[in-house]
Amino acid sequence: MPNIKSAKKRVLVTEKKTLQNKAVKSALKTQVKKFLAAVESGNKEEAAKLYPETVSVIDAAASKGVIHKNNANNRKAKLAKKLDAMGA
């Protein structure tokens, strides 16, 4: 347990930021699962509707630093590939 005032504050700030990051990451995973469920069920209209929403959530997580920007681009590319495979 820290004794110095600034160290105590850092502990509190870190706990708060951890909860915020956890919420963003959880929302990201939920959105990706929704999109993948639509793809797996073969529902093209639903998947096409969910894709922009999913990309938006991924971009938001990357802009907040929850995931790296390259990781975000990699995820978006994989989802786009799955969506394109449905149309073919």
Structure, explained:
With 88 residues, this protein is an all-alpha fold. The chain has a domain at 42-88. Helix content is 86%, strand content 0%. It has 3 helices and no strands. The chain has helices at 5-41, 44-63, 69-87. Helix 1 packs antiparallel against helix 2 and helix 2 runs antiparallel to helix 3 (69-87). The radius of gyration is 18 Å and the shape is elongated. The protein starts with a helix and ends with a helix. The mean pLDDT is 96.
Query: Count the helices. How many?
Result: 3
Strand content: under 5%
- Average pLDDT, all residues: 96
Radius of gyration, Cα only, in angstroms? Answer: 18 Å
**Helix and strand string, N-terminal first?**
HHH
Q: Which residue ranges are poorly predicted, with pLDDT under 50 across at least 5 consecutive positions?
A: none
SSE order and pairing:
Blueprint: H1 5-41, H2 44-63, H3 69-87
Characteristics:
88 residues, mainly alpha, 0% strand
In short:
The chain is mainly α. The protein has helices at residues 5-41, 44-63, 69-87.
